[in-house]
Amino acid sequence: MTDYVTAALDYVDRWLGMQLRASQRPGCVIAVVKDGGLVLERAYGLADLESGEPLTPRHRMRVASHSKSITAAGILKLREAGKVRLDDPVGDYVEGLDRDIARATLGQILSHSAGLARDGVDSGQFNGFRPFLTTEELLAELRSPPAIEANTRFKYSNHGYGLLGLVIEAITGQPYARWIQDTVIDAAGLVETDIDGLSKAALPMARGYSGRLLLGERVPFPAGYTTHAIAPAGGLVSTAKELALFFAQLAPEHPSSLLSRASRREMTRSHWQDGTSDQESCYGLGTMVGRVQGWQSFGHAGTIQGFTSRTYVVPAEKLAVAVITNASDGWATLWADRALHILRHFQEKGGPSQSTEGWSGRWWSTWGAVDLVATGERVYAVNPALSAPFSGATEIEVTGPDRGRIATCDGYGSYGEPIRRVRDAAGEVAEIWFAGSRLLPERAAARHLSGLSETVAIPPP
């Protein structure tokens, strides 16, 4: 592993812990895979707010639309076995469909270009108003015409992936969950992953929570429900570690995978661009494709009652990042993106140099936390509560063992002013003077803040 990754992951860990604390979300797990191996796996917060059970990396969570990547891999396995072609009409495998839906090809459904309805006439299954659709209910909806003409634009459809599950059942003669477990999940070496948590019920499961905005508090969602016919679109239960490992092996140049390189290239290349997005947002076959922090990437996101998740793979760096949270308002996509922001910063600047090594640490004032982060020949003063900590960060030039100066900052900062570290009798750094501001360790800053009402006259409002 390159030096920049080791240093970057040390800060990703510290930063994400502060992000969870500042955002007051219940819990979060991150996993990072580099060169095919797990290099970071951390859990923060709680698996159960009521009992106070800490969240661990082994707690499983629902990862929702990551299921589409598993289902797409299953279809491509059948293609490799010569049992399907991507230009086959879906009506060749599933009877009773609307005429236009029956003409849609497997490739169109995989790439969300078949024009199918997203969630049908009643999407209450995603909001707790009704159970998830059964096979009979899904087929009944697929007897109605598609929402738009096929092959005209990218149009996301959970119904489409439910239909692909029926294709798998028709070809294999097995229930979707059983076949996908044996042929894709187990074949990929995943031991903590299944559909709806049914086959691995003995493994711990985190509770999923609502956002706080509506009620002013978080409400736990019912556990143990099944996604029935929508499982191929959203039923997957997994861990951040196994998401990162599975998606890492989908990279075309990964040395080993359950899929051929040709299938992986087809799955992870752009098939359709989302023309309504102001970003480079595209879709492959069961994968989201685009750029993140300047890197070409693929992966997927997932949102379902109580959980959010996001996985990115950066093939050029042989890097995969997965984040799962157990809250409907969790910031999984933001945090996975910004973990790559930190990795990108260290890739460009490098790990600490001989002169900057030892300067990293977290310091506090009454305004909050300041992280000093050594990268290359500079020390960066960043706010860990910000989502993109290195954007516009103040840079410190080290001029001596405990001395520095502010070399780069905006015009409202203290450009050109000194930085000094103050050591205690044991030789440990006890405080930092940042220009004219005194920064303390957390406990010392907390003691100071708690005593302010007694030492400073604060006028009434």
Kindly list the characteristics that best describe this protein.
461 residues; alpha+beta; eight-stranded antiparallel beta sheet; 13 helices; 28% helix
Strand portion: 15-25%
The residue-averaged pLDDT reads 95
Q: Characterize the main sheet.
A: 9 strands, antiparallel
Helix content: 25-40%
By DSSP (H or I, 4+ residues per run), the number of helices equals 13
Assembly status: single chain
Q: Please report the total strand number as a whole number.
A: 20
Q: How would the global form be characterised?
A: elongated
Question: What strand order characterises the main sheet?
Answer: 3-2-1-12-11-10-9-8-7
Radius of gyration: 25 Å
Q: Which structural class should the secondary elements be placed in?
A: alpha+beta
Low-confidence residue ranges = none
First-last Cα distance: 56 Å
Structure commentary:
Helix 1 packs antiparallel against helix 11, helix 2 runs parallel beside helix 6 and helix 2 crosses helix 7. Strand 14 and strand 15 form a beta hairpin. The chain has a nine-stranded antiparallel sheet, sandwiched between helices. It has 461 residues and is an alpha+beta fold. It is built from 13 helices and 20 strands.
